[in-house]
Amino acid sequence: MNRADLNRLTTLLACPTAPFREETVATVITTWLSRAKVPYFRDPVGNIVVGASSRAEYRRRVRTHGTEPLRVFIAHMDHPGFHGLRWLSDRRLAIKWHGGSPAKKLAGADVWLATTHGYVARGRLANVRLDASRHGMHSAEVVIQMPSWKARPPAGVLYGGFRFRAPIWRTGRRLYTKAADDLVGVFAVMQTAIKLCARKRRAPFLGLLTRAEEVGFVGAVGHFELGWLDNARRPIVCVSLETSRALPGAHIGKGPVVRLGDRRTVFDPGALQVLTETAQRILPRRHQRRIMDGGACEATAATAWGFPAIGISVPLGNYHNQDDKTGTPAPEYVHLEDVEGMLKLCQALMEPGLSWSDPWKQQRRRLRTNLRRYRELL
User: Fold this and answer.
1) pLDDT by residue (tens digit) across 54-73?
2) Residue 138 pLDDT more than 90?
């Protein structure tokens, strides 16, 4: 990854974000897309659609006849975090948590606070209440420290998440950050779009950068409910790009993961075969294959709405800011080589002439050869 691309990635990882509070991320992304002359627009749900300038252009892309599938790359702009509810005193804010979280040693944990204009204060958690499962946070209070405001903002405009030594830092080839999930995937969608645009080739590509994935795929579901992908005149393949909990068989630093499924479902076998063959060709011995059942992703939402879906994951340490060993608040981390591998796979999936229409052709050829070898024993 060159210096400019790494700077884009680290800038994005430093952005504040939470479910329904993705505007800072959206502003950074749309600024870069505009500079690169990549078309985009916002759908009625607030998701960013990349690769088309309007709903009309989007619909034209879907209704254009073709054997090459339209690849819809999906990543989400949010990360678990809290919303301000009401002021309890000048420096004490009641909050509601949205999404997963650690469940241990939360009292006194450091947090950051932001508005749509960026970071505005620091604080510490107090009076924490866990959710019904006792596996994550439901609500709490934040004791405000180091506010930058002159006039206290309304509670409802404040949001935040766990704070660590910095929003992002690097140790060797690892990037540590307050939120890698799923800003790494957002970065990959953006980079894929920019590189396709630079080639000046009209590719069967759309990107969908969604809101509020962490509370049940809300942005993706809202988009599918619009019906814009219905009655397509060409095949549709949704490609979920995620930053997923590292698991046995999906190790940090061993390459991106060809995701066979998530906690909810397995993915489309034909499209997965194309992805597998592509990974074997582009990243021999530098990719992994696994059902990433540490969580669910937007490929599940696409599958539920009837669209073939596959997934690529970057293995993630300290998933949802929960230390892998202790369960206490900790920064997430990813390996740069895994991120670079994801970018290569995304670019390779956009190559023309992949075996989408007959993904099992080579496998049939091998099996027929084996049949001939053993026919006399039948």
Assistant:
1) 999 999 999 999 889 999 99
2) yes
Smallest CA-to-CA distance from 53 within 185, 202, 216 is with: 202
Distance CA 342, CA 109 (A): 33
Residue 306 clears pLDDT 80, i.e. is over it: yes
Long-range CB contacts for residues 166-174, cutoff 8 Å, separation at least 24: 167/13, 167/14, 167/112, 168/10, 168/13, 168/14, 170/10, 173/253, 173/335, 173/336, 173/337, 174/252, 174/253, 174/333, 174/334, 174/335, 174/336
Spatial CB neighbours of 242, under 8 Å, sequence gap ≥ 6: 75, 181, 182, 185, 259, 292, 297, 298, 311, 312, 313, 314
| Amino acid in position 265 | T
DSSP conformation class of 156: G
> How far is the C-alpha of 297 from the C-alpha of 243, rounded, in Å?
10
The total of other beta-carbon atoms located within 10 Å of residue 277's CB is: 16
SS3 9: helix
Q: Is the pLDDT of residue 201 over 80?
A: no
Summarised one tens digit per residue, pLDDT across range 205-264 is 999 999 999 999 999 999 999 999 999 999 999 999 999 999 999 999 999 999 999 999
* Residue 214 CB neighbour total at 10 angstroms: 23
Residues with Cβ within 8 Å of 51's Cβ and at least 6 positions away in sequence, in order, are 38, 39, 40, 61, 193, 196, 205, 206, 207
* Element of type H or E holding 220: helix 218-225
Q: Which residues pair with 168 in a beta bridge?
A: 177
Name, in order, each residue with C-beta under 8 angstroms of 65's C-beta and a sequence gap of 6 or more: 233, 234
Alpha-carbon distances of 296 from 16, 47, 259, 327, rounded to whole Å: 23, 19, 11, 20
Q: Which residues make Cβ contacts (< 8 Å) with residue 366, sequence separation at least 6?
A: none
Q: Are 234 and 69 in contact (CB under 8 A)?
A: yes
Write the single-letter amino acid at 181.
Answer: D
